[in-house]
Amino acid sequence: MNPVLIEVLRGATVESHHTGALAIVDTGGAVHTALGDIDRPVFPRSAVKLLQALPLVATGAANAVHLTDAELALACASHNGEPEHVATAAGVLGKLGLGVDALECGPQWPSREPVLRAMAARGELASSLHNNCSGKHSGFLCVACLMAQRLGVEPATFAHGYVDAEHPAMREVSAALSAATGQDVEQAPRGTDGCSIPTFALPLRALARAFARAGTGHGLPEGHARAARRLRQAVAAEPFMVAGTDRFDSRVMAVFGERLYCKIGAEGVFCAALPELGLGVALKIDDGAARAAEAAMAAVAQALLRTDHEVLRDYSHLELKNRRGLTVGALRPAFALS
């Protein structure tokens, strides 16, 4: 059984707790820290968007359409669907000469409530541009269009169906995941992600090693190493694009820049790269709780970076308030994690 990583307090009493597993690994696969079962395959979901974006840069597609830092950061994003995110994704499609109908991620209402309410008040409907994965999918379309150009075929026609596992653009993405993790993803359990692309269940050990490699370039093919560095630089320059207002990833990376790349995924998964330490982190909260995953990632970052910065402390020791604004409890790292 996996250990308790996060405790939830009501007053001074533990009301509930979250179990999970954590792997901290270097580029060669040596384990720095292991808590729980780090070899059980888990679906990393959106936590691996940096790895999925490697072909965008490595193939030359990003340079071909002159993507900006903001556009590259959005390719690694699970964003709020705020106006800046929507406009940036639309801008990438404009550079490709494509419309919103080219996106195959599906429509989604913005996750930031004030934005959603404002849209509803104006009578607007959500589109695929509001989907939290629209930046990633815009990046996939860049790769598909470059492939079409090199083949001398019509880009929009070639790009259609890019979410399918056997599409040439998606095969580039799968190959990048295999190279980074050292796992043949074609042999891994497969599911379909919320945005309709394939998602592969991989061990936390392999995911942590992949992010150690993405943070340093060591162990990656040369083109992927350059791509990882370029993407991390873009995210550090435009952290808002990776998530948005009041979101963990944007807040933390705005403070730490290139010292820490971190990305949450659905169902309580978190991955991170710490380039100066040569380490990668992958964790999974068993019950899928996002706030517990954020608390655990914050605690790990505090320990590894040897800092008590308030932006991390706000999450690792999150205060819980009731509807009157009274503090009624908190989250804290459990003994195994602390």
TrEMBL record:
<protein>
    <submittedName>
        <fullName>Asparaginase</fullName>
    </submittedName>
</protein>
<dbReference type="InterPro" id="IPR010349">
    <property type="entry name" value="Asparaginase_II"/>
</dbReference>
<dbReference type="Pfam" id="PF06089">
    <property type="entry name" value="Asparaginase_II"/>
</dbReference>
